[in-house]
Design brief:
Blueprint lengths: L6 H6 L30 E2 L2 E4 L4 H7 L2 E7 L4 H19 L5 E6 L4 H6 L4 E2 L1 E6 L7 E3 L5 H12 L4 E2 L3 H10 L2 E6 L6 H12 L4 E5 L2 H6 L6 E6 L5 E5 L8 H11 L4 E3 L5 H6 L4 E7 L4 H4 L1 H8 L7 E7 L5 H6 L9 E6 L4 E3 L9 H12 L22 E3 L1 H8 L5 E7 L4 H16 L6 E7 L12 E2 L1 E5 L8 E3 L5 H9 L13 E2 L13 E2 L1
Parallel strand pairs: 2-4, 3-4, 8-10, 9-10, 13-15, 14-15, 18-20, 19-20
Antiparallel strand pairs: 1-2, 3-6, 5-25, 6-7, 9-11, 11-12, 14-16, 16-17, 19-22, 21-24, 22-23
Helix pairs in contact: 3-5, 12-14
GO molecular function, one term: steroid binding
Protein name: Protein disulfide-isomerase A2
GO biological process, one term: response to endoplasmic reticulum stress
Amino acid sequence: MEDLLLPVLLLLLGFSGPWGQGQEPEGPSEALPEESPGEEVPKEDGILVLSHHNLSLALQEHPALMVEFYAPWCGHCKALAPEYSKAAALLAAESAAVTLAKVDGPAEPELTKEFGVVGYPTLKFFQNGNRTDPEEYVGPKKAEDIAEWLRRRVGSSATRLEDEEGVQALIAKQDVVVIGFFQDLQAEDVATFLALAKDALDITFGVTDQPQLFQKFGLTKDTVVLFKKFDEGRADFPVDKDTGLDLADLSRFLITHSMHLVTEFNMQTSPKIFAAKILNHLLLFVNQTLAQHRELLTDFREAAPPFRGQVLFVMVDVAADNGHVLNYFGLKAEEAPTLRLINIETTKKYAPTDVVPITAASVAAFCQAVLHGEVKPYLLSQEIPPDWDQRPVKTLVGKNFEQVAFDETKNVFVKFYAPWCSHCKEMAPAWEALAEKYRDREDIVIAELDATANELEAFSVHGYPTLKFFPAGPDRKVIEYKSTRDLETFSKFLDSGGDLPEEPKEPTVSIPEIKANSTVGSKEEL
């Protein structure tokens, strides 16, 4: 069940994904030409090929129309293409009343502008010929997910259940099944429930109003019940009679209780881990190839129930491809077994202060100590290189940052970068040239700090590259550079003492949560 998480839940809980954003295509809007009578919309691999000439015709002929805006050069679009065609084939085989189409965005600037396309691929769903308010698809880019999302829009998002046999058959289908027990299926709460079910693609939903089913499952009032084939087996969400069914609260409930008490971190589970809206994550690092390490999971799981909804318990196998997670916490595989707790809102990390065996009691005690503010967070820092100040670009780490950046006699310009960041690599020559230009200036220091391996108490870095200027003086002033990244503009900025009119920002890569791989984003910039 550890699958990609429900987009609607993320939206309701205020999440926005780390997807790259592109700039809006330019160009004046024009009146769209009328289609010729009898014109036929072309197809490729079961997908309608649309343009500003035939979109209106397609909307008239297909009451349920999904349109992909793509770019021929876009890598994500190329990866989506076979999945999109497969989704079309799945729906066609079922005779589903929905059609898939595509638009070459760069070739159709009028349409990309009309529909606010700012990145590729973008998928929009049109119903009943309405082109003014299409619904954007933000779910997983897999054929079955796309098809299921569309099925739930042209059909029912929950199975109507009339008897116990139907309930048991539905529960048997998946690891997690959610059934709404409502005494009146015309009530507003039912509409709320079905609206949520439309987007919760990794959960199967049912709904019933049958009194015998209320009795069978021990219910006396409207209740949403989550059945699962692990942990407690069942979790109930009673509907408040006075306030009704709260969509955000129900979303949070489903996220929390659809997860295992202990979730193994991997490519499949990482999206759900970060979508859970549980700010504290407790990680147990173990080597799954060692029996004595595997035995620790029993105690780890035993400690978890009292913290459900407050602390998410995660197991990280150091013998798997999780080196990036170890690096993020400043750990080495040989340090396992060990615990770390992180608050993903503040990114503060905590380690046990005492070396004690990992038991249910010690795990619970560590959690309580962190939650009660009894453990101080730790900061990552590399060791100071012996030659840190020998090159034109000085190398800063956590341990020497304060001393260098806030030197009252120096004007210090620092690049905070990530080794894998393409934008950082692109600006590297200009940064080196800047350092070379000012290498004889005793009052100017050009430096860089790997922000993936070093953390600072003074502030956090939220994107790569980030450029900050620390002017000389006692007031610890910090100026963020937001202009063009070239030697000429850098030089003007330094020569003016950090004063430069702000220009449009150059692109940065936002810092992602710890994913199971290093890929950032699912859209490419226009």
